[in-house]
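User: Before I run my own analysis I want an independent prediction to cross-check against. Here's the chain; please return only the structure tokens and, at the end, one sentence I can use as a sanity check.
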Amino acid sequence: MIAASCKICNNIKNNYILKVREMYFGTREEFEYMECSNCGCLQLINSPKDYSVHYPKNYFTFNQKHENKIKSLLNRFRDKAAMGENSLLGTILLKKYGSPVYVDRMKNAGISLKDSILDVGCGRGILLHKMKESGFENVIGIDPFIDKTIEYKNGLKILKKDFYEMDGLYDLIMFNHSFEHMENPVEVMKKSNELLKLNKTLLIRIPVADSYAFKHYRNNWSSLDAPRHLYLHTKNSIKILAEQSGFEVKKINYDSRSWQLWGSEQYSKNISLLDERSYYTNPQKSIFTKNQIDQFEKKTIELNKNGEGDQAEFYLQKISEVTSA
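Assistant: Structure tokens:
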């Protein structure tokens, strides 16, 4: 038990320390998280002095690849059809393959092809490049950890820039698994409020601690990802942040993957994500049978359906103006 105050709800009673190893690269360096007994948020206590060490060039965000040209072209027709553009080829592809997940998210956020979109912490901007190719006209990304600003041939720019340096007004701001990497979440929310038009949407996609995977695996929960994840939120802690920064939670979707189960099982057996025995790097040498992986997939679908998955999409609407500090 620890007397430290929660940075989300200020609770000081019955908070606990959780010791977590770095298991993505497998250094097994130990870090401490405080678990708030009130809002449930997990918060890294002993932050590294140099975070760039924990984001090397082989970190997955920097190694995502663009689709091949033929697939990209076909997806462009399908995605435009999913957004309402009328074309025979697009309609056929949409009927056969269904709407892509990112288009469903845009629809949930009430976004059109002409709306302005900012993606924060987007790496090389693979998603934004796909969106730009598919007709989203006004998209931009930022990431402070890329080597330099990226300018794609289609006009997309990914800026090497800090979030607090941004200005302008947007119809949608997205944190696609970057919010948990940022310090001072309430100030990040207030800055988002400043950059967002009234009644428009802030989309936060994050791992969540009020999930089956965390409750079951605790310090071996794969999505803890110490020390890169500074905060592991819950529905309650996101609601508290929203109330502090002029937002209202409008919708929550669960989109966890089976990695929450097999990754956590591996960590509990001291197998890191990049270990040669990891299902992530070498399925043939992993400790799991095909039947076990199938069961993890089945369990994940069930958890998402029941609101117990370890990843969630939070759609927050700006309902009032709040100035960041």
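Sanity check: The radius of gyration is 20 Å.
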